[in-house]
TrEMBL record:
The keyword DNA damage does not apply. The chain crosses the membrane at residues 37-53, 84-101, 156-176, 192-212, 330-350. Residues 253-281 form the 4Fe-4S ferredoxin-type domain. One of its GO terms (molecular function) is metal ion binding. This is Cytochrome c oxidase accessory protein CcoG. GO terms for cellular component: plasma membrane. PANTHER family: FERREDOXIN-TYPE PROTEIN NAPH. The keyword Ribosomal protein does not apply. Keywords: 4Fe-4S, Electron transport, Iron, Iron-sulfur, Membrane, Metal-binding, Transmembrane, Transmembrane helix, Transport. InterPro entries: 4Fe4S_Fe-S-bd, 4Fe4S_Fe_S_CS, Cyt_c_oxidase_cbb3_FixG, Electron_Trans/Redox, FixG_C.
Amino acid sequence: MSKQVPTREKMTTIGEGGKRFWLYPARFHGLWLKRRQIVAAVLILVFFVMPWIKINGQQAILLDIAERKFAFFGLVVWPQDFPILWFFVAGTAILILFLTAQWGRIWCGWACPQTVFLEHVFRKIEIWIEGDAAQRRKLDRAPLSFDKFRKKALKYLIFIVISSHFANTVLCYFVGTDQVLEMTFQPPAQNWGWFTFMAFFNFMFFVDFAWFREQFCLIACPYGRFQSVLLDSDSMIVGYDHNRGEPRGKLRKNQTQDKGDCIDCFRCVAVCPTGIDIRQGLQMECVNCTACMDACDEMMEKVKKPKGLIRYTSIANLEGRIRRFLRPRVIIYAMLVLGFYSTGTYLMLYKRDLSIQFVRPPGQSFTISAETTVSNQFHAKATNKTDKSYTLIPEVGPEFQVVAAHNPWVIPPASTATNPVFVRKNRDAFHASGKEKVVVSFMDAETKKLVFDLEVTVMGPSK
Ligand code: SF4
Ligand code: SF4
């Protein structure tokens, strides 16, 4: 395939006739790469280790969609708590707006799993087996030989093993590590559903990292598509200093002073994983990976010019203005994030793991039996948001009686239960207003300790 020159008008990865133009990003070294490698190593470690960590017997992070149960470092969120989750979801959405407005696509370049695994795992393996850009291109163009088959087979075998480990770990977050382990040692026939799901994910991850690659960022990722509205002239970007670099030109002996610092070596283009030329200005395809910063710094060092021709900057800086860190939009975002997160945290910390409500069935509010006892019927509805079972016995204050259909009342873990309950009082002792309040206490059947109490209004005949 002929050489594709990046332009702003069309995507570099779309070749003639709409065909995919395969990229061969070159190997490079530099300070930013070292920093990103450290961050990537920590993130990969956390990603693989986290599903094995348990807090109070509960997986540290679990997003069990099938069971509708989410766990975050000891805090368990049940479906009944989903309104609380809304505060965290809204806070996170605005946090993304805040981070992007301030630091641009820092997520894409440093922490996105697509970048972290592609650039720091899969690409590294590919370079290790097939060599740098020119060797990889040559190998792909060469006819099939034993050497080509050996290299490709080894590469894809390693890719399959890593993709499979990656997919299994993702599954641990959504199903639970214990269950994934159990299913792993069972024959597939026992878990056809999950087995198919797993095989599909293994395949998808493999295809993504082996073939789809930068296309995910360019055409599939919704976050990437929103960049043009999320960034402003004060947001941090990876940018080329046009004033310093232009007019560009090859380095020659007896060079005149009117030349810019860019020696037009195309190293920044050669290392770019999305195949763009950052010298053409800010582009949607730029994932802020800093590869061109390292590549250009290396060249600047060689030609003894100051580093930073491509650097972390902002459009304001590049246009000679001072970058404003605090802007109204950023302050509003920060306040909203703080508001949503603190409200969510407060509700989460003070939520009751067991709640009981008394609901009156429609119809008669009270009955009088044998002309002596006023009786109020209720449906007691309990919601148990924990993973332990409760066994409760209802009690009421003096002069009242409580009779429950299920006594003791067992409320299984992570479920709701209903129990018909009658609260009774002697007619003669009933208040003249025909209305009294009484506290119904639910005691633990074994320890006799109070678990839950609520105030109930009891109706009777007025005098
Ligand atoms: S232009 Fe630079 S920072 Fe942007 S994706 Fe390409 S190499 Fe990475
Ligand atoms: S790496 Fe630097 S010097 Fe070379 S072409 Fe890119 S911007 Fe110019």
